[in-house]
Amino acid sequence: MTDLVGVFDSGIGGLSILQALRAELPESRFIYIADSGHAPYGERTDAHVMARSRAIMAELLSRQVQALVIACNTATAVAIEQLRADYPDLPIIGVEPALKPALAISRTRCIGVMATRSTLASAKFKALLASLAGQAEFVLQPCDGLADAIERSAGSNDTSTIHALCAKNTQAMGFFGSHSGQIDTLVLGCTHYPFATEPLRELLGPQVQLVSNGPAVARQTRLKLSQRVLPAAAQPETLETESSLILLSTGDERVLQVATQRWLPQRPTEPIFLANKLNV
Ligand code: DGL
């Protein structure tokens, strides 16, 4: 029986984590929920993000997942501790901005961090930052609207807002480059932002390294699955349960479909199941 892993994000951003999960765990099956009907999370209250995380979690559990990946920095920062307390037997893996990997590769010790306002304001992120105090200068940039613009671009193909927001936010952070005092490493601290890699590269040039956490989260998921205590659940055979990837959205499911075709490497003849709009 193959593992069934639940993955969710406020929208399509978590596909950047799902890419890495599918590469690391080719035998596993995944159910991905894009909570696009209730996005963005990053500029909403903690109570909203907590309530949504609980609702999505309950939906995934009703579908018999054996592990949960919170493919969203904002939901991880706000909800992971409570979800782990609610479900102590379920492996729950989260995403946090890749400050430590950035520290390992930065030469100027000047590191930019783009994330949602909510992630940067969270106690979890502040604790991570404090644990690295004195090791580098971290320039923090809340990028209001960027995740939403990426979400919209999947439906419309219009990337002008993404370009404008990347330009505005990187300018606000100061100088990028490989000389002393310049930011040489940029942490993409929201799972939507890897989908803005192209405009960021155009703006910052090839010498600035862009860092995100997908492969590390995937390795951690593999480890947790190997240690889990819950047995793999038997399921009735249906079109859905035969699929290696099940896609669900609380918003416009066509946006998730387009984003998946664009950003998730497809395997030939792979059965993917896209459900109609999910009401949770
Ligand atoms: N993709 C999410 C994150 O990693 C949140 C984006 C949003 O909904 O604001 O934080």
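^ D-glutamic acid complex. The radius of gyration is 18 Å. Residues 46-62 form the longest helix (17 residues).
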